[in-house]
Amino acid sequence: DSGVTQTPKHLITATGQRVTLRCSPRSGDLSVYWYQQSLDQGLQFLIQYYNGEERAKGNILERFSAQQFPDLHSELNLSSLELGDSALYFCASSVGSGLDEQYFGPGTRLTVT
Amino acid sequence: AQKITQTQPGMFVQEKEAVTLDCTYDTSDQSYGLFWYKQPSSGEMIFLIYQGSYDEQNATEGRYSLNFQKARKSANLVISASQLGDSAMYFCAMRENTQGGSEKLVFGKGTKLTVNP
Q1: Closest residue in B to A49 (Cα–Cα)
Q2: Residues A50, A30: contact at Cβ < 8 Å?
Q3: Is the pLDDT score of B1 beyond 60?
Q4: Is A112 left (phi over 0), alpha (psi -120 to 50) or beta?
């Protein structure tokens, strides 16, 4: 158990819908990272937050957004969902803004039908 | 161009034998880090081992060791005394600087390891 929690574990929704994925980092970790793992694209970095502020952006679509709250939990919002958004979404956390130790949550498997 | 290359889509090893999973990387940074993660069929990503570019010794964590050859830009994972529970996908990743002074991980496509009894 990495100490990073993600809810829900599974999510099935229809095209065009909007969903919110939630992540709680390990106790004491200030950084949260979001990754998408799909069969065709592999594992890709989406976005990072550090202590409530956006620090880095990767291959995140404009239909996707995220935020980190004062209690350091983070939410990833996916809107206007398409079939191709079906993937495993991981959250990871680390103590600082660097990546010496980054621990992943169990992931949320999103299926868009 | 790919920054992390894992050339072995699948590997097989007999239980109790050692296995090496290959990883080569491409970067012009002087300071970088290399990671290996394990992803069992259940889906979670498990951190295994980390090697910093300035570390003089190869990293080791239990049965895992990293064969770091900086000049060849390779960071192969060696698993000794394989166990059935080692069957999983293994991902090599590199820490890459982003604009704004932060960092992100760039992953390879992974190697599926199967340990045979």
Answers
A1: B102
A2: yes
A3: no
A4: beta
Cα distance between residue A9 and residue A40, in whole Å: 21
Cα–Cα distance measured from residue A40 to residue A48, given in angstroms and rounded to the nearest whole number: 22
Tokens 């960071």 locate to: B75
- Scan for tokens 């080692």, then name that residue: B86
* Nearest-CB residue to B102 (from A2, A48, A106): A48
Query: pLDDT by residue (tens digit) across B90-117?
Result: 999 998 877 666 778 899 999 999 999 9
Both tokens of B15, joined, read 């239980």
Nearest to B104 among A2, A45, A100 (CB): A45
- What are the C-alpha distances in Å from B102 to residues A35, A42, A56, A97, B97? 16, 22, 6, 6, 6
Instruction: Give Rg (Cα) of chain B.
Output: 14
Are B105 and A58 within 8 A, CB to CB? no
Chain A contact for B110 (CB, 8 A cutoff): yes
pLDDT bucket at B31, cuts 50 / 70 / 90: confident
* Residue A85, token pair as written in the block: 């958004």
